């Protein structure tokens, strides 16, 4: 299956490519696992897990992106992470967004203050992008979840 609005990041500054396939895994279960003392496993089975219901709140307005680049590591977003992006959420200050600036896609934290818009990286090695009226700018969606791969 392929996400209708799927996307995949590919450059060092978190740009995107289309499309990214969706996953269909109907036989998953939610299990709470203690990080302290071990306990019998069946005590923690909560029931079936539907990843779409758990991760996607507005299916018609949601797409996925894969991250490359390290401008958002301070927010816990690392290269190769999978982000869930919701176009139905109105972007406000503090949201991490997928934005288009002069035709280039990027992942940054949105800051709107004193009538000015800026896109802020979460890595001191990168500079903020200050949006001025001469620039082409649009927000594609708000990042709602990050799936971090451990290997």
Write a structural description:
The protein is mainly beta. It has a single domain, classed as Umud Fragment, subunit A (Ribbon), CATH 2.10.109. 3% of the residues lie in helices and 38% in strands. The protein has 1 helix and 11 strands; from the N terminus they run E-E-E-E-H-E-E-E-E-E-E-E. It has one helix at 51-55, and strands spanning 8-9, 16-17, 28-31, 45-49, 62-66, 82-86, 96-101, 104-113, 116-120, 129-131, 137-147. It has a 7-stranded antiparallel sheet, with no helix packed on it. Strands 1-2 form a two-stranded antiparallel sheet. The protein has a two-stranded antiparallel sheet with strand order 3-4. The two termini are 25 Å apart. Mean pLDDT is 80; it is low at 1-23. This is Translesion error-prone DNA polymerase V autoproteolytic subunit. GO terms for molecular function: DNA binding; DNA-directed DNA polymerase activity; hydrolase activity. InterPro entries: LexA-like (IPR039418), LexA/Signal_pep-like_sf (IPR036286), LexA_repressor (IPR050077), Peptidase_S24_LexA (IPR006197), Peptidase_S24_S26A/B/C (IPR015927). Keywords: Autocatalytic cleavage, DNA damage, DNA repair, Hydrolase, Nucleotidyltransferase, SOS response, Transferase.
């Amino acid at each position: 299956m392929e996400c209708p609005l799927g996307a995949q990041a590919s450059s060092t500054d978190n740009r995107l490519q289309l499309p990214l396939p969706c996953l269909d895994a109907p036989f998953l279960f939610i299990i709470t696992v203690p990080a302290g003392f071990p306990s019998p496993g069946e005590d923690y089975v909560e029931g079936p897990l539907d990843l779409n219901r758990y991760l996607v709140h507005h299916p018609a307005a949601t797409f996925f992106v894969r991250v490359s680049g390290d401008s958002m590591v301070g927010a816990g977003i690392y290269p190769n992470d999978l982000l869930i992006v919701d176009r139905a959420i109105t972007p406000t200050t503090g949201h991490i967004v997928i934005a288009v600036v002069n035709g280039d896609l990027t992942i940054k934290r949105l800051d709107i203050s004193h009538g000015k818009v800026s896109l802020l990286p979460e890595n001191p090695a990168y500079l903020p992008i200050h949006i001025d009226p001469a620039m082409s700018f649009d927000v594609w969606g708000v990042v709602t979840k990050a799936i971090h791969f451990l290997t």
